[in-house]
Amino acid sequence: MPLDIRFTDQDWQRIERDWSAWWAHDLDRPLVVIQEKVEDPNRPLPYAPGYVTTLPFDMPAEEVVDRYQAHLEATRWYGDAMPRWWLNFGPGIAAGFLGGRVHPVEDTVWFYPSGSTEISEQRFRYDPENPWWRRVCEITRCAAERWQGQVSVGHTDLGGNLDILASLITTENLLTGLIDEPEAVCRAAAEITRLWLRYYDELYELIQTAGTGTTPWAPIWSPGRTYMLQSDFCYMISPAMFERFVLPDLAACCDALDHAFYHLDGKGQIVHLDYLLSIERLRGIQWIPGDGAPPPDEWLPLLKRIVDGGKLCQVFVTAQGALTIARELGGKGFLFAISDEMNEEEARALIRLLCENK
Predict the structure, then answer these.
(1) Is the pTM higher than 0.85?
(2) Please, which pLDDT band fits residue 357 given cuts at 50, 70 and 90?
């Protein structure tokens, strides 16, 4: 089924030019990502849930892609946005690839141990026949082949190494293991990281056939290899433990990527920021204040600390929030993903204002 989309080859050339300049810190303005869904009341869109796991596991990959294609065709991309789609099998689906129990529900996916939860007994291996891995590869391949040259097909959310390990042995066991069996934790985490890189590489081989760069779940894009790295588990540990158990994984992943980003999620992770800024090949940091916290534009000292540390910065903000950040800190080095609903005229007006405050 051909894709009917309002995005030309010239648009893709502009995307590659401006995003490449941004990664190189050569773009003298912020990147601004705005999307609009334009639905035809005479053509209801098919059911396409945020989590692909909500659909039947045995639904043919072609039918899955058909459903999301209809939504892509109803979307308009303004500013530095582009047609992109990532396969959402839940945050940390690599736990499923490694034998963990996967429990999808309507609006999320839960992961549970399926065997021993003793850290010393954990041994991880690549299983090409794992059903979750095969399903992710099948749909990724189908989307990349269908949308060649038109849509950037994203990597599924593999997760962070300690997040994955916590899913396989429980969070409580991992927390006690950091103290009681630190060497076993380091060994298990390193095994997961090696497999994480293999999963990334094999998905990259499928995705690159589309010829439209790479993208993760977050609204970032690269002509090469990018990913939004994370460690939600580190919210519960000290900077010293972060240095020992998380930093080596992040550094290894950054070394394997052209444009690595980090998902700084909530004020409890701010204590680790200095270590993140020290990773030379970490290109940027996404700041997510967390539920109930003030929006990103009320964290100006933190945002300044990130960009002054030589990193790019991505935030989800309202139009007014983006204008506040651009006015107070300048727009260069920022990526504003605008949360307000707006049409093309409103989007173009906002982009002009943001570029004036560059």
Answers:
(1) yes
(2) low
